[in-house]
Design goal:
The chain is of the alpha/beta class and 255 residues long. The protein is built from 11 helices and 10 strands. It is 51% helix and 16% strand. The chain has a 6-stranded mixed sheet with strand order 1-2-3-5-7-10, with helices on both faces. Strands 4-6-8-9 form a 4-stranded mixed sheet. The protein starts with a strand and ends with a helix.
Length: 255
Protein backbone atom coordinates (compact mmCIF):
# COMPACT_ATOMS: atom_id res chain seq x y z
CA UNK A 1 0.00 0.00 0.00
CA UNK A 2 3.03 2.26 0.29
CA UNK A 3 6.02 2.15 -2.01
CA UNK A 4 9.24 3.38 -0.41
CA UNK A 5 11.88 4.94 -2.65
CA UNK A 6 15.11 6.57 -1.55
CA UNK A 7 16.55 9.49 -3.51
CA UNK A 8 19.80 10.04 -1.66
CA UNK A 9 18.79 11.44 1.74
CA UNK A 10 15.21 12.05 0.57
CA UNK A 11 12.69 9.29 1.23
CA UNK A 12 9.63 9.12 -0.99
CA UNK A 13 6.54 7.43 0.41
CA UNK A 14 4.19 6.72 -2.50
CA UNK A 15 0.58 5.92 -1.68
CA UNK A 16 -0.35 2.82 -3.67
CA UNK A 17 -3.80 1.58 -2.77
CA UNK A 18 -5.80 1.29 -6.01
CA UNK A 19 -8.05 2.51 -7.32
CA UNK A 20 -8.14 5.89 -5.52
CA UNK A 21 -5.67 5.67 -2.60
CA UNK A 22 -8.56 5.83 -0.13
CA UNK A 23 -7.29 6.04 3.42
CA UNK A 24 -8.44 2.94 5.25
CA UNK A 25 -7.13 2.15 8.72
CA UNK A 26 -4.38 -0.12 7.40
CA UNK A 27 -3.01 2.49 4.99
CA UNK A 28 -3.17 5.27 7.59
CA UNK A 29 -1.29 3.16 10.13
CA UNK A 30 1.28 2.11 7.53
CA UNK A 31 1.98 5.72 6.52
CA UNK A 32 2.28 6.66 10.19
CA UNK A 33 4.72 3.79 10.71
CA UNK A 34 6.86 4.72 7.70
CA UNK A 35 7.19 8.31 8.95
CA UNK A 36 7.92 7.01 12.45
CA UNK A 37 10.75 4.87 11.03
CA UNK A 38 12.39 7.98 9.61
CA UNK A 39 12.05 9.76 12.97
CA UNK A 40 13.64 6.78 14.74
CA UNK A 41 16.55 6.72 12.30
CA UNK A 42 17.10 10.47 12.66
CA UNK A 43 17.17 10.18 16.46
CA UNK A 44 19.50 7.15 16.54
CA UNK A 45 23.16 8.19 16.59
CA UNK A 46 24.14 4.95 14.83
CA UNK A 47 21.75 5.64 11.94
CA UNK A 48 21.63 9.42 11.83
CA UNK A 49 24.60 9.79 9.46
CA UNK A 50 22.71 8.02 6.67
CA UNK A 51 19.10 8.61 7.79
CA UNK A 52 16.67 10.42 5.49
CA UNK A 53 16.62 14.16 6.09
CA UNK A 54 13.41 14.88 4.21
CA UNK A 55 10.24 13.03 3.23
CA UNK A 56 8.14 13.31 0.07
CA UNK A 57 4.61 11.89 0.14
CA UNK A 58 3.36 11.20 -3.38
CA UNK A 59 0.35 9.58 -5.00
CA UNK A 60 -0.70 8.01 -8.29
CA UNK A 61 -0.74 9.93 -11.57
CA UNK A 62 -3.93 11.99 -11.61
CA UNK A 63 -4.83 11.23 -8.00
CA UNK A 64 -2.95 11.98 -4.81
CA UNK A 65 -5.46 10.58 -2.31
CA UNK A 66 -9.26 10.36 -2.25
CA UNK A 67 -9.50 10.88 1.51
CA UNK A 68 -10.84 8.62 4.23
CA UNK A 69 -12.33 5.34 3.04
CA UNK A 70 -16.10 5.82 3.01
CA UNK A 71 -16.66 2.08 3.40
CA UNK A 72 -14.87 2.10 6.77
CA UNK A 73 -16.41 5.40 7.83
CA UNK A 74 -19.93 4.05 7.36
CA UNK A 75 -19.38 0.44 8.53
CA UNK A 76 -20.34 1.06 12.13
CA UNK A 77 -19.16 3.07 15.11
CA UNK A 78 -16.16 0.86 15.90
CA UNK A 79 -14.86 0.98 12.32
CA UNK A 80 -15.28 4.76 12.08
CA UNK A 81 -13.68 5.33 15.48
CA UNK A 82 -10.65 3.17 14.69
CA UNK A 83 -10.06 5.04 11.43
CA UNK A 84 -10.57 8.50 12.91
CA UNK A 85 -8.23 7.85 15.83
CA UNK A 86 -5.56 6.34 13.57
CA UNK A 87 -5.85 9.35 11.26
CA UNK A 88 -5.47 11.68 14.25
CA UNK A 89 -2.22 9.92 15.18
CA UNK A 90 -0.95 10.33 11.61
CA UNK A 91 -1.78 14.04 11.70
CA UNK A 92 0.17 14.46 14.93
CA UNK A 93 3.09 12.53 13.42
CA UNK A 94 3.20 14.95 10.49
CA UNK A 95 3.04 17.97 12.78
CA UNK A 96 5.86 16.62 14.97
CA UNK A 97 8.08 15.39 12.15
CA UNK A 98 11.73 16.20 12.81
CA UNK A 99 12.40 16.46 9.08
CA UNK A 100 10.54 18.48 6.43
CA UNK A 101 7.69 16.70 4.67
CA UNK A 102 6.68 17.70 1.15
CA UNK A 103 3.39 16.71 -0.45
CA UNK A 104 3.81 15.81 -4.13
CA UNK A 105 0.16 16.25 -5.09
CA UNK A 106 0.01 14.21 -8.27
CA UNK A 107 -3.68 14.87 -8.99
CA UNK A 108 -7.01 15.22 -7.21
CA UNK A 109 -6.69 15.75 -3.47
CA UNK A 110 -10.00 15.96 -1.57
CA UNK A 111 -10.86 15.70 2.13
CA UNK A 112 -8.39 13.52 4.07
CA UNK A 113 -5.86 13.80 1.25
CA UNK A 114 -5.99 17.57 1.61
CA UNK A 115 -5.59 17.22 5.38
CA UNK A 116 -2.32 15.34 4.85
CA UNK A 117 -1.17 18.00 2.37
CA UNK A 118 -1.92 21.01 4.58
CA UNK A 119 0.04 19.48 7.46
CA UNK A 120 3.16 19.11 5.31
CA UNK A 121 5.85 21.78 5.10
CA UNK A 122 5.38 22.37 1.38
CA UNK A 123 2.88 21.40 -1.32
CA UNK A 124 3.71 20.87 -5.02
CA UNK A 125 0.64 20.22 -7.18
CA UNK A 126 0.04 19.00 -10.72
CA UNK A 127 -1.14 21.59 -13.24
CA UNK A 128 -4.43 21.00 -15.04
CA UNK A 129 -8.01 20.32 -14.04
CA UNK A 130 -7.08 18.71 -10.73
CA UNK A 131 -8.79 19.84 -7.56
CA UNK A 132 -7.86 20.09 -3.90
CA UNK A 133 -9.91 21.03 -0.87
CA UNK A 134 -11.71 20.09 2.30
CA UNK A 135 -15.02 18.86 0.95
CA UNK A 136 -16.10 16.84 4.00
CA UNK A 137 -19.41 18.70 4.26
CA UNK A 138 -20.35 17.31 0.84
CA UNK A 139 -20.63 13.84 2.40
CA UNK A 140 -22.16 14.99 5.67
CA UNK A 141 -18.93 14.97 7.71
CA UNK A 142 -18.06 17.76 10.13
CA UNK A 143 -14.38 18.71 9.54
CA UNK A 144 -13.84 20.03 13.07
CA UNK A 145 -12.32 23.24 14.36
CA UNK A 146 -8.76 21.92 14.48
CA UNK A 147 -8.66 21.22 10.74
CA UNK A 148 -10.45 24.51 10.08
CA UNK A 149 -7.67 26.36 11.94
CA UNK A 150 -4.96 24.55 9.99
CA UNK A 151 -6.78 25.43 6.75
CA UNK A 152 -7.21 29.04 7.89
CA UNK A 153 -3.48 29.19 8.62
CA UNK A 154 -2.77 28.73 4.90
CA UNK A 155 -5.58 30.49 3.06
CA UNK A 156 -6.66 33.13 5.59
CA UNK A 157 -9.86 33.54 7.57
CA UNK A 158 -12.04 34.99 4.81
CA UNK A 159 -11.24 32.27 2.26
CA UNK A 160 -11.49 29.47 4.80
CA UNK A 161 -14.88 30.74 5.97
CA UNK A 162 -16.13 30.90 2.38
CA UNK A 163 -14.77 27.55 1.21
CA UNK A 164 -15.15 25.14 4.14
CA UNK A 165 -18.93 25.34 4.79
CA UNK A 166 -19.64 24.61 1.11
CA UNK A 167 -16.92 22.00 0.70
CA UNK A 168 -15.49 23.84 -2.28
CA UNK A 169 -12.61 22.25 -4.15
CA UNK A 170 -10.10 24.48 -5.94
CA UNK A 171 -8.34 23.86 -9.25
CA UNK A 172 -4.57 23.77 -8.94
CA UNK A 173 -4.20 27.32 -10.28
CA UNK A 174 -6.85 28.57 -7.86
CA UNK A 175 -5.18 26.71 -5.00
CA UNK A 176 -1.87 28.39 -5.86
CA UNK A 177 -3.49 31.82 -5.86
CA UNK A 178 -5.21 31.08 -2.54
CA UNK A 179 -1.99 29.90 -0.87
CA UNK A 180 -3.26 26.34 -0.43
CA UNK A 181 -0.36 25.00 -2.51
CA UNK A 182 3.09 26.51 -3.01
CA UNK A 183 3.91 25.51 -6.58
CA UNK A 184 2.10 24.14 -9.63
CA UNK A 185 4.12 22.20 -12.19
CA UNK A 186 3.43 19.82 -15.08
CA UNK A 187 1.96 16.58 -13.77
CA UNK A 188 4.97 14.50 -14.85
CA UNK A 189 7.28 16.87 -12.94
CA UNK A 190 5.49 16.91 -9.56
CA UNK A 191 7.54 14.22 -7.83
CA UNK A 192 10.79 15.36 -9.45
CA UNK A 193 10.21 18.93 -8.28
CA UNK A 194 9.25 17.80 -4.77
CA UNK A 195 12.45 15.77 -4.49
CA UNK A 196 14.50 18.72 -5.81
CA UNK A 197 12.91 21.02 -3.20
CA UNK A 198 13.66 18.48 -0.48
CA UNK A 199 17.28 18.39 -1.57
CA UNK A 200 17.41 22.20 -1.49
CA UNK A 201 16.23 22.12 2.12
CA UNK A 202 18.77 19.46 3.05
CA UNK A 203 21.57 21.64 1.60
CA UNK A 204 20.74 24.53 3.94
CA UNK A 205 22.82 25.01 7.14
CA UNK A 206 21.14 22.29 9.21
CA UNK A 207 21.03 23.85 12.68
CA UNK A 208 19.79 27.19 11.40
CA UNK A 209 17.22 25.53 9.15
CA UNK A 210 15.85 23.37 11.97
CA UNK A 211 15.56 26.36 14.28
CA UNK A 212 13.80 28.44 11.62
CA UNK A 213 11.49 25.57 10.64
CA UNK A 214 10.52 25.12 14.28
CA UNK A 215 9.75 28.84 14.44
CA UNK A 216 7.37 28.85 11.48
CA UNK A 217 5.60 25.65 12.57
CA UNK A 218 5.30 26.55 16.25
CA UNK A 219 1.73 27.82 15.81
CA UNK A 220 0.78 24.52 14.16
CA UNK A 221 2.17 22.53 17.07
CA UNK A 222 0.33 24.75 19.55
CA UNK A 223 -2.95 23.97 17.79
CA UNK A 224 -2.36 20.25 18.23
CA UNK A 225 -1.12 20.64 21.80
CA UNK A 226 -4.40 22.30 22.79
CA UNK A 227 -7.05 21.18 20.29
CA UNK A 228 -10.32 23.14 20.47
CA UNK A 229 -12.36 19.92 20.27
CA UNK A 230 -11.47 16.42 21.41
CA UNK A 231 -11.91 13.42 19.16
CA UNK A 232 -14.02 11.81 21.88
CA UNK A 233 -16.44 14.75 21.89
CA UNK A 234 -16.69 14.74 18.10
CA UNK A 235 -17.50 11.03 18.00
CA UNK A 236 -19.91 11.30 20.93
CA UNK A 237 -21.83 14.06 19.16
CA UNK A 238 -22.49 11.79 16.19
CA UNK A 239 -19.70 12.46 13.71
CA UNK A 240 -21.10 9.81 11.39
CA UNK A 241 -24.85 10.36 11.08
CA UNK A 242 -27.71 9.00 8.97
CA UNK A 243 -27.05 11.98 6.70
CA UNK A 244 -23.43 10.86 6.31
CA UNK A 245 -24.39 7.29 5.51
CA UNK A 246 -26.98 8.40 2.97
CA UNK A 247 -24.58 10.73 1.15
CA UNK A 248 -21.75 8.18 1.24
CA UNK A 249 -24.00 5.45 -0.15
CA UNK A 250 -24.94 7.72 -3.04
CA UNK A 251 -21.29 8.45 -3.81
CA UNK A 252 -20.22 4.82 -3.59
CA UNK A 253 -23.10 3.73 -5.85
CA UNK A 254 -22.16 6.31 -8.48
CA UNK A 255 -18.56 5.10 -8.77
Amino acid sequence: MIEVKNHGRVRELRLARPPVNALNCALVKMLDQRISEVMTAVGDSAQSVSAPRAIVISGSPGLFCAGLDLHEITSGEASAKNLVFAFAMLQRRLVDSAVPVIAAITGHCPAGGAVIAILCDHRIMAAGDFRIGLNEVQVGLYPGELIYRVYERLVGTRRAALLLPRGIMLRSDEALEAGLVDEVVASEQVVTRAIALAQELIALPPKTYVRTRNLVRADLRRLFDSPPETLESLMAEGWVTDETRERAARLLTSR
